[in-house]
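A common beginner's mistake is to predict each chain separately and then try to dock the pieces by hand. The better habit, illustrated here, is to supply every component at once so that their relative placement is modeled jointly.
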Amino acid sequence: MPVANLEWFLLIGAFLFATGVFTILTRKNAVSVLMGVELVLNSANINLVAFSRFVRSPATLGPTSIEFPLQGEAAHHVYGAAWIGGNVFAAFVIILAAAEAAVALAIILGIYRNLGDVDVDEVTAMKG
Amino acid sequence: MIAALGIRLGDPAAYVFLAFAAMTCGSALIVAASRNIVYSAYALLLTFFGVAGLYAFLDADFIAAAQLLVYVGGILVLILFGVMLTHKIRDINLSNETTNPIIGAAIAGFIFLALAYVSIYTKWDVVERTASPTTGEIGKAFVGKYLLPFEASSVLLLGALIGAAYLARREKEKP
Amino acid sequence: MGRGNRPVVKGDKAIRFWDIAVVIGVFAVVMQIVPLLVWAERRISALIQDRVGPNRVGPFGLFQPLADAIKLLFKEDVIPDGADRFLFVLAPALAFFPAAMTATVIPFGAPMLIGGEMLQLQVCRGNVGMMLFMALTGLSVYGIAFGGWASNNKYAMLGSLRASAQVLSYEIAMGIALVSVFMTSQSVDLNTIVADQTGTWMGFVPKWNVLKQPLAFVIFFIAAFAETNRLPFDLAECEAELVGGYHTEYSSMKFSLFFLAEYAAMFSSCCMITTLFLGGWSFPGMPAGETGKLFSLLTVAVFFTKVAVLLFFFIVVRWTLPRFRFDQLMHLGWKTLIPLGLANIAATGVAAQL
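With all components supplied together, the output reads:
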C-alpha cells in the first residue's frame, strides 16, 4: 500500500479545491480565474485516483446502458479491471481540461482584442 | 501515535511524500495569493508537478505521466501564452488584483473544513491491493467499458480545436 | 514511477547499489557528452567552413570546452535593470533540468547479470518512459519562456514566445509519429520496442523501425530538430532578427546553462531516435538471451556509435541549411507533418489488419 492513508490524499485534494475556489472568487484577471479552475480540476483528479487506489471496487461492471456479453472476472480481463475506473475518469478529466483551456484562452484573447483588458468585471455586454 | 497519523514514517518514501504534499499545497497558496500573475503561473507549475508526484505515490503511473504531459507540457504553456499575450511587454506591474479577499477566504475556508470533516469522519471501505501497472488496464478500459465516452471525448477535442482556432483567428476586415 | 512497475527480478529491493550506480553513470555520461559535443560542433563547423577550429588546448583542442567554461565562469554576471530577479536566475536551471532528465528513460544497453540479479541499464523503468520523455521535452519551454519574460527585453520576449509555440506544435507531430511506432511494436515499453527490432530480414537487413516506419522516422527526426531549437528551426534565438533571442540578456554561467541545455537536449533526442528507430542497443547477428557483462558493455558501445552518427548528422545539418521563416515553420508543423503522421497511423492500422 502507499506510504500514506487515503485521508492524506483527500485532505490535499480538499486544500487544492479550497485554494482553487478562493482564486476563482477573488481574482479579476480572467487568466487567473482559469488557473483557479485548473486547481479545482486537479483536486478532483487527486480524489478520483485516490479512491481508485484505496476503495473497494464493485465485483461486476455494474449497470450501464450498454449490454456487455461478459460479466465478472472474465469481463475484467477484456474490458479492463473495475478498480481502474477512477484512473480512467482522471484521464477523461485531463482530456476535458485540455479542451477547456484551449477554448478559454481563445475567448480570453478575443476579450482582450475587443476590450483591451482581461478584467472579468468589465465583460458585461453580450454583443462583441 | 505515529500509526494514528496514517503515514508510515519509518519508510524514507514517506518524507518524499510529505515534501510533495507540502510543495503542492504551498504552491497552490502562491497561485491564489501572489500579486504577480507570472509568479502565479510559475507556482502553478510546481503545483502540477506536486500533483504528478502524488499520483506516482498512488501507483497511477499513466496518470502521473499524462499529468506532466498535458498539464505541464500543454495547459500551462497555454496559460503562459495567455499571460504574455494579454499584457504589454514593458508592463512590469502585471495586474492581478484580489477583490473581496475576506469573503473569499471565508467561503474557501468553510469548503475546506467541510471537505476535511467528510474525509476524516467517513468510514471508507478501504481494501488492500498490491500495486500493478495501470497503462494496459486503462487502455483496455478505454476500448472496452468506456468506449463511448472515449469516442465522445475525441469528438469534443476536435470541436474544441476548431472552436478555439475560429475564436482566436483575427477577424478579416469587413468590406 | 510507482514501485509496482519495476520489472520483477530476483531479490528486488527498493534501492540497490547497482541501480544507484546506473543513475550516477547516466548523469555522468550526459554531463560529459555535452562538452564533447560543443567541441565536435566547433571542429565540424570549421571543417565545413574550411577553417581549422579550436586545436590549441589539449590534443586536437579537446580541452577547449574546459577553457571556455573557465572563461564563462569568470565573466561578469549581469542581471539587467528592470528584470525579474527571481525568475531571471531560475530560468537557466529550468531549461537545463528537463534536458538532463530525459536521458533517464533510455535503455542504454542489454540487461546485465550482476551477482545473480538482472541489472537494467536504464534509470526510469516501466512503460511510461515514452510519455515521460514527451513530458520532459515539453518542459524545456519553461526555461525559455520565463527567461525571455524575466529579461524585460523585447527581443527576448519575442524569442521566448516563438520557442513556446514551436515546441508545443512540434510535440504534437512527435507524439503522432510515436503512435505508429507503438502500433508496429505493439508496446509502449522502450525495452520491448528495442527487443522488437532485433533480428534480420534475409540474414543481413536489420529489422529496425526506420525500415518498418520510414515516414514516422522522418516526422520524428524533423520534430526533434524543432524541439531542440536547432537550425534550421532555431527561430527562438535567430541572431539576424532577434539579436540573440531569449538569452539576449544572459551572460556568464547562466548563458552557458542555456547553451548546455541545448546540447543535452540534442543528445537525449538522438538517444531516443536510436532507441525507437535504429534498433537501440541491438545489432544484427546478436546472440539472443546473452546476459554477460562484456556483451552488455558491447551493446552500450553499439548504442553510442549509433548516437554519434546521429549527432554528427545534427551538426552537419546545422551548418548546411538556412533558417526557416516562422510562418513556414508553423506551416510545416501543422499542415504537413501532422496530417502525414495521421495518415501514417491510418496506413499502419490498415497494414496491421491485412
